[in-house]
Amino acid sequence: MSRLGSLGVVVTSAALLLGCASVYNVPINVPLDAVGAAENARPAIEDAAASDDLLIGLAFSGGGTRAAAFSFGVLQEMDNTPMPRASDKMVDRIDFISGVSGGSVTAAYFGLKKRDALADFRERFLLQNAEEGLQTELSINTIGRAFSGGINDSKAFTKWLDAHLFHNVTFGEFRRVGSPKVWINASDIYNHVPFVFDATAFSAICSDLTKYPLSSAVAASAAVPIAFSPAVVQAFPGTCRDPLPPWIAKAAANRNASPLLGSYAKAILRYRDGAVPYIKLMDGGLVDNYGISGFTVMRESSDNPYAPLTPAQAVKLRRAMFLVVDAKAGITGNWVNTVEGPSGVDMLKAAVDTTMDASVGASYSAFDRTMKDWQAAMIKWRCGLSGAERARYGVRPGWNCKDLNFFIGRLGFDQLEPDRAAALEAVPTRFQLPPQQVDDVIAAGRDTLRLSPIYQAFIRGI
User: Is residue 22 exposed (0-12), middle (13-18) or buried (19+ Cβ within 10 Å)?
Assistant: First the structure.
């Protein structure tokens, strides 16, 4: 049969299959009540730097099990780094983690279990087949579901995540376990902005974050287009009275606000106004495959030089490290060698990969600028404190207001030797990998962190 004839069969079959029921996810979030409102309002970084003078933040990128394994290796290496004059390790001092797609699995499990996660995450997740129960191939049998919303809904994956990792934990339980604070990031595909499972978004839609399942947030963060139908979160406009933070209306109206902050603020206003009754969420990597937009927005929206820290935390802080753990895949495909192509599945994959890769450079540049601006603003604020303010915030004798250093960097496969990097970049973006590939990527995470000049400089400065 000719290629055109084959295409006609596929299109005709898809049209017939589209007559079947659409594939979609039913919202499971619930309206806000008075108790939920109080819990939603808890600050995202409540105890950062509360017990020491360090602030450590990690962002885990997308990339399926490959990303989950790479970030796990980074955590393992931090567990090998002792802290001076203390019995704990660097991994115990992490203040926050932001995760997207595959990286959100590691972020959520470590946030829930802390160091105990290092003992069993490899066996519970990395060596398992998280695709069991899912249809993962685009074929004549699945194309109808693909065009009806997505080959899979979220039920099988969330059920698998709960059975193996999260055991039906909600955000209310998750947020009570202390540092590190964790952000799970998805993409709002209507407003083209990040959707962070946090107090800001859920308060805007008058919904109770504390009752939302952690597994559902992770599944939304990893909902790759075509493979999954969008996760759906329902807004309940008019059912809550708490006003939105003032910065939202201010940023939405400010023509000079950063594009990220302005777009995010406008989306939040649409949620509250009821203009978006059902928020459709897909893989967080579509708008930010590093998962750092949430923290960028949080800092850029702050109306003081130290937020989201408290003044007492800000005067104590001496060293801050922010690392983006980047498990990005390399360039794949051979269709550049011919006039034809890409087509079919290759076209879809190329479009998604292009979208994700295009977002990372801009998001990292914005993040780097925001962190450096934060450092400068905090030093200026600290050095301008009056004697009374210093006493109130607990400044100790000999304190140097300028003694504040930020270490900002990225960890990626490309920082290893070329042959090894190429092999790692070729690891498929799936939720099922052979054990040897899993262990190779874990080892790469350990080695990349250990060899990082940013990490070494941070350690020397402690």
Answer: exposed
Distance CA 238, CA 352 (A): 36
Question: Quick one: the chain helix, strand, coil %, rounded to 5?
Answer: 50, 15, 35
* d(C-alpha 382, C-alpha 248), whole Å: 27
Helix (H) / strand (E) containing 56: strand 54-60
DSSP H or E run through 436: helix 435-451
Average pLDDT over residues 111-140: 89
* Residue 34 CB neighbours (<10 A): 8
Q: pLDDT at position 165, please?
A: 97
- Burial profile 427-448: b = 16 or more Cβ within 10 angstroms, e = fewer: bebebbbeeebbbbbbbbbbbb
Look up residue 159 and give its two tokens.
């059920």
**CB neighbour burial string for 153-187, b if at least 16 within 10 angstroms, e if fewer:** bbebbbebbbebbbeebbbbebbeeebbbbbbbbb
Residues in the chain: 462
CA dihedral defined by 262, 267, 268, 274, rounded to 10 degrees?
150
pLDDT for the residue 35: 60
- Band of pLDDT at residue 1, cut at 50, 70 and 90: very low
Which residue, among 411, 387, 415, has the nearest Cα to 401 in the 3D structure? 387
| Residues 405, 418: Cα–Cα separation, whole Å | 32
Strands 96-100 and 278-283: unpaired
Helix locations, 395-434, DSSP H = 418-425
Provide the β-strand partners of residue 58: 97, 323
**Residue 377 φ/ψ, nearest 5 degrees:** -65, -40
Would residue 147 be called left, alpha or beta, if left means φ above 0 and alpha means ψ between -120 and 50 degrees? Answer: alpha
Instruction: Determine which helix (DSSP H) or strand (DSSP E) holds 362, and give its type and residue range.
Output: helix 344-383
Cis peptide before 453 (omega within 30 of 0): no
Fill in the amino acid letter for 5. G
Give mean pLDDT, residues 51-77: 94
- The values of phi and psi at residue 183, to 5°, are -110, 130
Please write the tens of the pLDDT for every residue from 286-341: 999 998 988 888 899 998 999 988 999 999 999 999 999 999 876 767 777 788 77
Q: What is the pTM of this model?
A: 0.89
Tally of CB atoms within 10 A around 272: 19
CA-closest candidate to residue 398, choices 410, 389, 390: 390
